[in-house]
Design brief:
The complex is a heterodimer of chains A (221) and B (115). Chain A contains ten helices and six strands, in the order H-H-E-E-H-H-E-H-H-H-E-E-E-H-H-H. With 221 residues, chain A is of the alpha/beta class. Chain A has one domain: Rossmann fold (3-Layer(aba) Sandwich), CATH 3.40.50.10610. By secondary structure, chain B is an all-alpha fold. In chain B, helix 4 packs antiparallel against helix 5. Classes of the chains: A alpha/beta (221), B mainly alpha (115).
């Protein structure tokens, strides 16, 4: 091996563990007992509560949930229609919407479970030498029949991650893929909303959602 | 020669990892559908423009038999918005056939149109 080859090989070997740890995080395992008893097939996502100052946050986040939930094997109640029907029924603020009774939601939408999302951070913060665009969300999945909590989780995506390159390769690929798709659409925060949504709602992640019935992996987790 | 094979395999290993992660097959064919949801919710494109876009992509998507959840229903909403109730019904019906989970909601919408 030449010196150059040796160097390349060494660099790649050092890179491998970062790859592996990128997929692993150590945390308290989530208790999936209620989730496994309920096994919802369809999920109604209500317009998220917005605790950030940006009024666009709620609908921006709502527009990003279909892909990860559907690809995790769930039927997602069509979000544009859900928003429209709620509006027609005089429900224009997320705060009011999140207070609608389970009975009423079941009657109109007939979903198995409802996902309540809260946007805790959305937007760009300007510091002295740089700026950070970050989106943070948390969510709670509730069985619409029983009212039992099936799952809750939280996720973030930040422009700092790009700058630091501290991620696993999988994360970098995911971000690159999202970037391509979103580039044409909207503001910077929207891109991070997409990444945060995929982190929050993709099945198969540590303490994430279980796979739904339309996924091949259904019942294996 | 042996050495070069060894270094090649070291080089290939991370590549295999990348391929493994990147080529995860999707259940559905999306073709910009989620982007259309964004554009609709933010009011950036009107229903006429979206109908053209969605109908254009639909034949491609249907050829693969992988229409994503909500695609037909969203198209139905667009037809409601332009006042074409006949097409809207067809779309809500199609959503129901593709995804029986949507039946209660689609029936609610179909009943609204019939009124």
């Amino acid at each position: 091996m030449t010196y150059k080859q040796l160097l390349a090989a060494a660099a790649l070997t050092a890179f491998l563990p970062t790859l592996l740890t990128g997929c692993m995080t150590l945390s308290e395992p989530f208790n999936y007992t209620a989730f496994k008893e309920s096994r919802p097939k369809s999920i109604l996502v209500l317009p998220p509560l917005n605790n950030s100052p940006d009024v666009k946050a709620s609908l921006s986040m709502l527009s990003k949930v279909t892909y990860p939930l559907a690809e995790s094997g769930y039927y997602v109640m069509p979000v544009t229609l859900v928003e429209k029907i709620l509006k027609e029924n005089g429900m224009t603020t997320s705060a009011d919407i999140h207070l609608i009774s389970r009975d009423k939601l079941t009657k109109i939408f007939g979903a198995d479970a409802v996902l309540y999302i809260t946007v805790t951070h959305y937007g760009t913060t300007y510091h002295v030498i740089d700026s950070e665009t970050r989106v943070s969300v948390k969510a709670e999945l509730i069985d619409l029949k029983t009212g039992v909590n099936l799952w809750n989780g939280a996720a973030s995506a930040s422009s700092y991650e790009n700058a630091n390159h501290s991620n696993g390769l999988f994360e970098q690929l995911l971000m690159a893929a999202v970037k391509q798709v979103v580039n044409t659409v909207a503001d910077a925060s929207s891109e991070y909303a997409d990444i945060a949504s995929r982190r929050l709602l993709s099945a198969g992640r540590t303490n994430g959602l279980l796979y739904g019935p339309r996924a091949l992996e259904y019942g294996t987790d | 020669m042996k050495k070069s094979i060894a270094s090649l395999s070291v080089l290939l290993l991370p590549v295999m990892f990348i391929m493994d992660c990147a080529s995860v097959p999707t259940i559905y064919k999306w073709d910009g559908y989620q982007e259309q949801i964004s554009l609709h919710l933010t009011g950036k494109t009107g229903p006429e423009q979206q109908i053209v876009e969605l109908e254009k992509n639909l034949s491609k998507i249907q050829a693969d038999g992988k229409t994503p959840p909500g695609y037909m229903a969203h198209l139905g909403l667009l037809y409601v918005e332009v006042g074409n109730d006949g097409q809207a019904k067809r779309c809500f019906q199609a959503e129901k056939e593709l995804f029986p989970e949507s039946a209660p909601f689609m029936n609610y919408l179909l009943a609204k149109i019939s009124k």
